[in-house]
Description:
Chain A is mainly alpha-helical. Chain A contains 15 helices and two strands. Chain A has helices at 2-16, 19-25, 27-45, 73-80, 84-115, 119-130, 137-148, 154-161, 176-201, 205-213, 218-243, 250-257, 264-267, 270-278, 284-312; strands spanning 56-57, 68-69. Chain A has a two-stranded antiparallel ribbon with strand order 1-2. In chain A, helix 5 packs antiparallel against helix 11 (218-243) and helix 11 crosses helix 15 (284-312). The longest helix of chain A is centred in the N-terminal third of the chain and has 32 residues, at 84-115. By secondary structure, chain B is α+β, with helices and mostly antiparallel strands. Chain B has two domains: 30-161 and 348-416, Periplasmic binding protein-like II (D-Maltodextrin-Binding Protein, domain 2, 3-Layer(aba) Sandwich), CATH 3.40.190; 164-344 and 431-524, 3-Layer(aba) Sandwich (D-Maltodextrin-Binding Protein, domain 2), CATH 3.40.190.10. Chain B is 44% helix and 11% strand. In chain B, the strands form five sheets. Chain B has a five-stranded mixed sheet with strand order 2-1-3-12-6. Chain B has a three-stranded antiparallel sheet with strand order 10-7-11, with helices on both faces. A two-stranded antiparallel sheet of chain B has the order 4-5. In chain B, helix 16 crosses helix 17 (376-384). Chains A and B meet through helix 4, helix 7 and helix 14 of A and helix 1, helix 3 and helix 20 of B.
Amino acid sequence: MFKSTANRLEMPGKSKLGFFAKVKKYRTLLCMCLPSTLFFLFFSYLPLPGIWVAFVKYNYQKGIFGSKFVGLQNFEFMMQSGKLWTLTRNTILYNLAFIILGNLFAVFMAILLNEISSKLFKKVSQTMMFLPYFISHVLIGVLVFNFLNYDTGFVNTVLSNLGLERWQPYADPYCWPAILIFIYLWQQSGYNSVVYFAAIMGIDGEIIEASRVDGANAFQKIRYIILPSLRPTIVILLLFALGGIVKGNFGLFYNIVGTNSLLYETTDIIETFVYRASVTDFNFSTASAVGFYQSLIGFVIVMTVNFIVKKIEPDYSLF
Amino acid sequence: MKKRVLALLLAVTMVLGLASCGSAKTKKVDTSEHVKITYMFTGSKPEGAAMDRFQEMNKKLNEILTAKCNAELEFYWIGWTDYLSVYNMNIAAMDGTVDLIGTASDWLDAWPNAKNGGFLILTEDMLKTYAPKTWASVSADHWELCKYDGDIYLMPEDNYAQWTNHGFIYRFDWATKAGLTNGVHSWEDMTKYFEYVTANKKALGINVAWDSDGTQNTQMASGWVVSHSKFVPIDGICSSALWGGTKDNLYKIITPAYTDTQMMVEYAKMMKKWDEMGVWKTDVLNNTTSTNRDDYRVGLVAADQHHTQTWTDLCSKTPSNTIYNDPNAASGFFYFGEETGNVVALSITHGAMAVSAASKHPERALMVYDLLRNDPDCYRLINYGIEGISYSLDSAGYRVTPASYNPDTDNVGGATSWWWGRNDDLELKDATRNWTAIEAMYKEYDKIKIDYPYGQFVPNVDSIEGKIKNCNEVFGDYMKKISYGKYSGTAEQIVAEMQAALKQAGIEDVTAELQKQFDKLYKK
Lengths: 319, 524
């Protein structure tokens, strides 16, 4: 949507105006994108040469480019761990679930919010949904432990008072994907739905008016007007999210699962493994090597998905 | 265009990287300029009234330091949360804000930081000129142990008697009731003790026998190994004591936790038994909010797993240890290795001081250290605080707390963490400590101990770093399950599984490489 507008603005300039004339003409637009440009320049592009640290034996005194070059040695420990596949699989599957379910849920909530007619109720429910977003992962970890622990946890106290058998989630790796996804949705959906809610607000009122005149009911309105209007937003947000699909949510996993090795099979992600393996020796080089590996996979995934999107619907692709 | 911009950016970054090189030159002792020396260390920063007390001490100390070497000391705390990463990150920053760095070769990364260029090389000339008393008090043998690649990096705390060998702290009075009239002296006794304690929780008024937070797993495993063999672990390779020699053959590297199947199976069985008895909470591996030590002081738990130094506190009738309001209460210590008499004295670099390679005033930093370590006035201030407020001396010369003493605010020595230059010549013995019990224990240790034999071994791990990390990680994973009895299947199965995983992680390659370096160092 944004892109096509920009194209239209640019088209006439391309043939007639020179570089500086264009700068002058679009100075307001340029000013508006200056902060984000600077942000990415300083925090994403300028540090790029620092990737080199992943290929050296880093020495504090000699600096990144003065340290000894060791080739791919810093990548070896990930390969040798024999866990690379499990870790990458866990990371990607969790993120897929977070992205897909998270977005679906957020769209669903935004539509529900939009349908609420009482203004007070709408504001109250939106705030309630938003609140979990502000609770830190550390606190959530404590809450979850107090809910689920075997000896004194809330759930088990209720179960045993009802005469039922106690449940021991901290020794059962298979219930954690569901628990973690539930926590993620509980925490993030309110926040994520804001973008979609804003997009719904931006839909031209006349279209909705017209549909009502044509006799569309609420479900038809959602099916034929709101959902199609949200499609570009959904696709763009999905594409953005996919770039980070190999980067795990360290705070969530580390604070809730901790270092309980009974659960690693289904809960260990790249970040938590690297943290455990590196916390004792503080090695910039291995950490950067892992980061580089994640970025590389993320890059390949974004390019592939973007390519596919471009084939199907060129307007929705990122570039 | 894009390419040119990128090339330019690259060039700029490279130039910036190169420009940050510089060198510290040694000068004659010139103290005309007043400088601030920052001392970085692990510890909890005092707050509120405790901070005020601390600052009173700091002011007094700075008056002396200004008079003697025209410098003042600033304290820089590294809090205990993720202390190792924060500590290492502050060293790596190299921005010249830190001068003196408290360090240790076993529990803080002294050698990795020296190797990575974080610490300044301390030449003999520098030490003789700026820290003459320290230079003279440390023997040549001990300076040898502070060298990496022929250069001195650390000033060791080598004149301070302390024992940091681990074991279980338990209630001696309860052990007697359990039928162990002579106290706990083996893992089997410990089992008997826990059996009694877990069966009588209500009568003893405890919540749980030992409210472990789930992190003592590799410590316990290593304790089991030294109790059942003559194994002498090598410090500083990784956090778990996987590699070491034996008392009979110090320079042949073995890995008993990996090779001695029978011993590890028995361990797994006993820990399963402990778990079933309910020694710890069911979800011990997620029990991060435990306050076991404080609970022990007030009698809410029956055991703690830590080292002798901690026991010397817990066995003494101090104001915080309210269990001793009951005259029958007493705390015993079962140290790992007691069954086989396998105790190794502390490495002298368990506490040591280093100077940051980025320090702008390394000479003055050394002068300040020399004073803090050897000057009685400075020493008492930094270790105990101001006399009359934080401590006073009784007629026998023991350190006591004044009547007005408030442990929450006046414990200045607790805030300075001066663990890198304590000196028995200047120590004031704490009158509240249970010296009869402590000295008896020290005497017992002195009879059986051997000196830490591998002080000079600083392995070059470049080629095996990944494998060490993976072995440590695998061992940690399995020890959480084994040490807390949280495995399914039989003990034999889980040990076999662990051995296979360690093999896969490359433990044998690491052993071979370490042996090669050992041979080079010790078989000259």
